[in-house]
Design brief:
Its EC number is 2.7.2.17, 2.7.2.19. One of its GO terms (molecular function) is acetylglutamate kinase activity. It is found in: Cytoplasm. Pfam families: AA_kinase (PF00696). α1 links the parallel β1 and β2. α2 packs across α3 and α5 runs parallel beside α7. The strands form 2 sheets. Strands 1, 2, 5, 6, 7, 8, 9, 10, 11, 12, 13 and 14 form a 12-stranded mixed beta sheet that branches. A two-stranded antiparallel sheet has the order 3-4. By secondary structure, it is α/β, with parallel strands linked by helices. It is 38% helix and 28% strand.
Length: 288
């Protein structure tokens, strides 16, 4: 069984424990694909260059980055550049033969470029153009499987390869959680989303209200209702991973002892494929 691990890019996340855990799992013969975020590092680099990061809110209330051409240049420099290289370097120091890959390598992650996005500003819906983003539609699972079969541990970063209407390709931004979800689905793997909290909380300010697991559509509805802010995207990614074929998804604390192993043992919020609503049930409800 393969495990896909996503390490969050928040400042509060220390990757050291997760990297040591990857080394332990690989030593035990497990296949691991590591993915990572890095929005904080991108924002910090933009600010050092005298640029202001731009975030927009969709009509549905989801807040995300607007990636203009300048931001995309910084993104390519930071994500597959410094951050990915640092993680590969650290894994080698843990005894892991790691290989850094971006979503553009070998069409590992690809989809259509989205050059304009719908946003909500001052209570009004608008179209904002000049975006460099895309939704992942295809994963080159063969590239990852070949890398793993060779005894190497892939470390994957966005950007992805975005197809233009003209037929050409452009590197574009994509959400790192959803990238991890797409990979986990394609490999039918367990997905561990490591972040700076220990799971999804019914009360976002109270760790004691952590939801241990969800195995039915009704239980998953409770998880979605509880998710706020950055956790909303993680729950969306979890659903996409399970729809794509992932074996399970766990949202867990990156700073815990042996964070990946403990997450797989049930320490975070575990979501099982049973949370997906059966299509026949959905059609019946619609008919009623």
């Amino acid at each position: 069984m393969t495990t896909v691990v996503k390490i969050g890019g928040a400042r509060a996340v220390d990757p050291e424990g997760a990297l040591a855990d990857v080394a332990s799992l690989v030593e035990d013969g497990e296949d691991v694909v590591l993915t990572h975020g890095g929005s904080t590092a991108v924002d910090e680099t933009l600010e050092e260059l005298g640029e202001e990061p731009t975030y927009v809110e969709t009509p549905g209330g989801v807040v995300g980055r607007f990636t203009d051409e300048r931001t995309m240049d910084v993104f390519k420099m930071v994500m597959p550049g410094k951050l990915n290289t640092d993680l590969v370097e650290s894994l080698h120091n843990e005894g892991v033969d790691a290989v850094g890959l971006s979503g553009t390598d070998g069409k590992l992650l690809s989809g259509k470029r989205k050059s304009a996005v719908r946003v909500k500003e001052d209570g009004k819906k608008k179209i904002k153009r000049g975006d460099h983003s895309g939704k992942i539609e295809s994963v080159n699972a063969d590239l990852l499987e070949t890398t793993l079969a060779g005894g190497y541990t892939p470390v994957v970063s966005v950007p992805i390869l975005g197809k233009e209407k003209s037929g050409g390709y452009t590197a574009v931004n994509a959400d790192a959680d959803r990238a991890a979800a797409a990979i986990a689905g394609a490999l039918e793997a367990d997905l561990v989303l490591l972040t700076d909290v220990s799971g999804v909380y019914e009360d976002p300010d109270d760790e004691s209200t952590k939801i241990e697991s969800a195995a039915t559509p009704e239980e998953f509805a409770g998880v979605k209702d509880a998710a706020e802010g950055f956790m909303t995207k993680k729950v969306m990614a979890a659903e996409e991973a399970l729809e794509g074929g992932a074996s399970s998804v766990v949202v867990a604390d990156a700073n815990a002892d042996e964070p990946i192993s403990s997450a797989l043992a049930g320490e975070g919020t575990t979501l099982e494929p049973g949370v997906l609503e059966d299509e026949d049930d959905a059609e019946t409800e619609a008919a009623e």
